[in-house]
What we know:
The chain contains four helices and six strands, in the order βαβββαββαα.
Amino acid sequence: MHIGFLTPEYVMPGLLDGGLANYIKKTSIGLAQRGNQVTVFVLSERNNHWNDGPVDIIEVKRIKVPHWLKGKQYQPFINQIISSQSIKKAVWRKHRSSPFDILQASSYMIPGFSLRHNGKVPMVCRISSYTPLCRAAQGKEHHFGDFMSDC
């Protein structure tokens, strides 16, 4: 089975990593050790391809929003859409040479947004990172971009 993970973070040398990064690393290595082919697509500051033991890591460069949009309330939403499109292109490039059986997105927004209802590969999503619920629990103020992302 070929399993793809779509994530904004992964354990990488020289970078701080959090719970999601560690979850993806441990899960992907565990699945690979059980005979599955695993590819992780991670948003990064560069385009790069490497192996973490038995796991194929594809770093996809984040595309920055245009300069004139910086500081706007909807900037996070625009960043999510652009980054999601970058991940989508990388997934289909890999899928052409080695088809996926299933994809897992780290959240329902980014980076899996562009692959929802893709009609080719089933996709699941971690609900533990449901952003509107996390934001409400932390009492954070909602901005226009947050509402756009939550739709």
